Automatic annotation (TrEMBL):
Pfam families: BrxC (PF11009). It comes from Hufsiella arboris. The gene is ytxJ. This is Bacillithiol system redox-active protein YtxJ.
Length: 109
């Protein structure tokens, strides 16, 4: 899995300015539910179009970036959480056991 580490607010602005789709996966390294959601997402990753950037946010290490995600994309913080961004706007958000690369891929297709 080619995760793009999301470690700075500047990267969020880049995602916001991007045309097309991006995914942000917010993960808590202290949560077993988050670990299971991450494994499931990685298992299903092939369902996503090959060129879809997938950002990985360790929200324990980068809490300030996680807070900025909520603010910038107008979503309520959850953990784990998946956001599908299209042309700078969050068009789909899900969390916990509902996280699915296949569901995200169906929204992109």
């Amino acid at each position: 899995m080619n995760w793009i580490p999301l470690t700075s607010p500047e990267q969020l602005q880049e995602i916001k300015n991007n045309n097309g789709y991006s995914i942000i996966f917010k993960h808590s390294t202290r949560c077993s539910i988050s670990m299971m959601a991450k494994r499931k997402f990685e298992f299903e990753r092939e369902a996503l179009p090959e060129n879809t950037p997938v950002y990985f946010l360790d929200l324990i290490s980068y809490r300030d970036v996680s807070n900025k995600v909520a603010e910038l994309f107008h979503i309520h913080h959850e953990s784990p959480q998946l956001l599908l961004i299209k042309d700078g706007e969050c068009v789909y958000e899900t969390s916990h056991g509902e996280i699915s690369a296949e569901d995200a891929a169906s929204m992109i297709a």
